[in-house]
Amino acid sequence: MEKIYEVIKNCRLCESTNLKKILDLTDQPPANSLYKAGDAKPPKVPLKLLFCNDCSAVQLDSSVDPKYLFSRYVWVTGTSKTAEDHSIFFSKTALKYFNGSTNLRVMEVASNDGTFLQPFKSNGCEILGVDPAKNIAEEATRKGIPTIGEFFSESLANDIVRDKGEQDIVFARNVLPHVKEIHSVVKGINISLKNNGLGIIEFHDAGLILDELHYDSIYHEHLFLLSLKTISELLKRYSLFVFDIHKSPISGGSWIIFFSKQKKEKSTNLISAEENDKLRKVDTLQRWENFASESKKHCLQLRKTIKQYEGKILAYGASARSSTLINFCGLSDADISAIIDKNPLKHGLLTPGSNIPIISFEEGMKFIEKTEIILLLAWNFENEIIQDLRRNGYTGKFIVPLPNRVTIK
């Protein structure tokens, strides 16, 4: 089989060779390379976390071919009620910076199924999505969210500006850490944005990853674990300046940063967040080495907890992050009978590396009467999932693996 990855020698942000290995999560298949029984098993790729001693950027040692990862995608934003609710808050927050005006052009980079563009459309904005997953881009367009099925880049940004003009708002949610050509994407955002426009980036908070031990957020799609400092420095390199920040519930805790081409006075929220990161030593090697040590201990604890239950247990949430958790902890179909997931694109497939069947919510409900415990892999949607299962008659317990420690509820 053709090699689908390359190992880096230089920091992806500053080109330094002064890289230090923090954590080896073992060789794993790319997290979303789900497959059918009988098909060839997906290839394994090194999954190691590195720290750049020069710019503090935390990143993976291996880059998987983006076409392998994203050309056909199985994560659909709209399957999460939390994400749908957040999309409304997100649009309202963005539009406040325009004093209620909705005669705006709005573009999303990596727009998926258009869930986050829909509220802008409902408010009268002219919208445009860009996403490399052609299957999802085509479906979004059919549903009234015009979407370009390509990777966003400096070159594509020039084409968009030529054909459609500059944008009042450009936003990218949980995508910048995924991007191999990250400098081209940030240049493209600068090109696309009006001089008085608003840029927005949402990303998993590295400080929270450290505080709550989110090692399951490390997988091949996430080339970076960006901190407020590293992302701000990257944007500044391309004359984009962060001036405000808000919290997001996505990924178990994310930041939403607001930036522009014009330097603006920093909000008190942003100043506070920057100071807090310094106090917590988010951008230090020592803090990340401690994270690695605690992740290994947690993995052993989770494995021990699951092995206490005789036979196989049921799980919920075949997310990308669940793949890291399962494979790093050495779990498989010998421990987990099936994983319930509401995304129809995943039904009937097997998890990469662990070979666990993924079943629909309806099929999973057939098992709940004789199930005494469910492993909640999608723990970052804990409340939503537990309420849903309780409404459907599940009375047993849950193993909630994170944040911080394994708990039984």
Distance between the termini: 44 Å
Number of strands: 19
Poorly predicted ranges: none
- Percentage beta strand: 15-25%
Main β-sheet: number of strands, strand sense, barrel status?
A: 7 strands, mixed
CATH evolutionary superfamily of the domain at 77-285: Vaccinia Virus protein VP39
Named at the architecture level, the CATH assignment of the domain at 77-285 is: 3-Layer(aba) Sandwich
CATH topology (fold) name of the domain at 77-285: Rossmann fold
Rounded Rg: 21 Å
Class based on secondary structure composition and strand pairing: alpha/beta
**Can you identify the CATH class of the domain at 77-285?**
Alpha Beta
Estimate the mean pLDDT confidence: 92
The order of strands across the largest sheet is 8-7-6-9-10-13-12
Anisotropy-based shape? globular
Helix content: 25-40%
Could you write a compact summary of the structure shown?
The chain is an alpha/beta fold and 409 residues long. It contains 13 helices and 19 strands. It is globular, with a radius of gyration of 21 Å.
